[in-house]
């Protein structure tokens, strides 16, 4: 069974709540998560810049990258890996699936 099939998904928001090339912040299981829509796809990434601890959801989305508004660090929405300095530490990304208008995200329990 794949990780996505075994994970417990919870509703994060509606697809209709998302703007193209934009992000919103939601709280799931006590974690702040940025839900991002770009290139017709939806991604979930921890809403926290690993360099400056500010919300990524307040930054710009460009393709598969989200940019921290404070110092310009960019992160790949697919992997969470930083793609530009000053950040060097990845941030968690979470499995996403769409059911109707619902965006479902799996947050692993610690």
UniProtKB/TrEMBL annotation:
InterPro entries registered for this protein in UniProt: Rieske_2Fe-2S, Rieske_2Fe-2S_sf
Stretches of the chain forming a coiled coil according to its record: none
Domain Rieske: residue ranges: 10-105
Single GO MF descriptor: monooxygenase activity
Highest taxon of the lineage: Bacteria
Protein name, as recorded: Non-heme iron oxygenase ferredoxin subunit
UniProt xrefs under Pfam families: Rieske
Keyword check for GTP-binding: no
Record has Signal as a keyword: no
Swiss-Prot/TrEMBL keywords: 2Fe-2S, Iron, Iron-sulfur, Metal-binding
């Amino acid at each position: 069974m794949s990780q996505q099939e075994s994970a417990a998904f919870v509703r994060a928001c509606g697809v209709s709540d998302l703007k193209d090339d934009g992000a919103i912040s939601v709280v799931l299981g006590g974690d702040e998560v940025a839900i991002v829509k770009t290139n017709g796809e939806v991604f979930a990434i921890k809403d926290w810049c690993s360099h400056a601890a500010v919300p990524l959801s307040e930054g710009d989305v460009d393709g598969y990258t989200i940019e921290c508004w404070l110092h310009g660090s960019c992160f790949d929405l697919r992997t969470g890996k930083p793609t530009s300095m000053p950040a060097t530490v990845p941030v968690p990304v979470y499995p996403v699936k769409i059911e109707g208008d619902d965006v479902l995200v799996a947050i692993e329990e610690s």
